[in-house]
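Q: Protein A?
A:
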Amino acid sequence: MDSMADSDERAVETDRKSLSVGDPALGKSRLLSKQCDSCIFAPGNRMNLGPGRLRDLVTKVHEQGSYIICHDTLPHYLYPQAKPAICRGFADRYRTQALDLIERLWGFVEVDPPSLAERHDKAEGPDR
């Protein structure tokens, strides 16, 4: 039983590290420099979210005092080379305890959202 609990704890810790928006070299948190092309906060529901889904997500994040990580920067999404970063659409519209603390204590490093060109280059690989 203990080995199962240890395994679960290691999995959770690995997941936390893979979702970290922190840049260890700079000691700052990554924040997108602008909204990604399919931002959930862009007009037109580009991500085809169900009715009320965005509102529910924002409510949950506010209750947790956290932030939203841009979906384009999530591990194993469209751009596997991207590092997790805070969604610019969220940060421009909402203030939370986590965003305030990050800003006051360490600050942000702005990073560009991954682009379709990067996705295309990655898919083709270096030999093509």
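Q: Protein B?
A:
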Amino acid sequence: MEEGYRTLGDAFTVPVAHKRVTFLIGPDVAPHFFKATDDELSQTEVYNFNVPTFGRGVVYDVRTEQFRFFTEALKKDRLKKYVPQFAAEAEV
């Protein structure tokens, strides 16, 4: 991912195993993933691709309402507010 980001930019597609995987890295392109409709991004494909990694019922098993929750929680303003908590947990 680091090499792809460095050489190809914040949105790129690479072959991974038997699939082509598109990476959207950074605040300018990540919203395209979270706001995509089912016609633009197949939630089923994303979910099925990730089941072996995360197991059933984890993150990608949710639908539109929960994706909106993630979208709000991962906005730059919100992430900045989490830093003190992250730092405190890391120091424990």
